[in-house]
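Chapter review: from sequence to fold.
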Amino acid sequence: MTAYAPRNWLGEAELVPFDPPVDPAADDAGNLAAFFDMLAHSEGTARFGDQDGYNVLVGGSLFHSYADHPRRSVWLPAYGIHSTAAGRYQFLESTWDDLANRFDLVDFTPASQDAAAMQLVRQCKALRLIYDGHIRDAIHACRSIWASLPGAGYGQREVALAELIDVYRQAGGHVAER
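The token string follows.
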């Protein structure tokens, strides 16, 4: 009897093949951790508080409970908008609620924030790029999610690609040679 995969299963997550990375020197886990550190730098959260940005509200103030997304709307006069962005990767309340529902995230702890960020990276089809050290391409792929990435086009501050690559490398990430 032949087994059939559900018709829509590929839409849920990027499949990571089991073949070796394009650059054998690339370190999958190290590259992902470095990419997350780079995102925190780009979003401006890493410089606030003493919890590596995991408890930062947009604008730089801190929240004190990881039980759930803080659900606070902050006025940003420089951009003329209210935002609910929070955490190391600045999840909007609506984005967080969707991720928490789809992936059974029961709190807003650092582990849950990392898991949610990985799902967003997968949604952008950038996980394999990161694992293989193709960071420029991964940044480009993720720019529709994180407004601070170059080329995002949200009308907010965008961090230069060269700066992001430097932060990624300083965090231990490997950049594949083209």
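Two observations follow directly from the output. Residues 24-170 form a domain with the Lysozyme fold (CATH 1.10.530.10). Confidence is low (pLDDT under 50) at residues 1-24.
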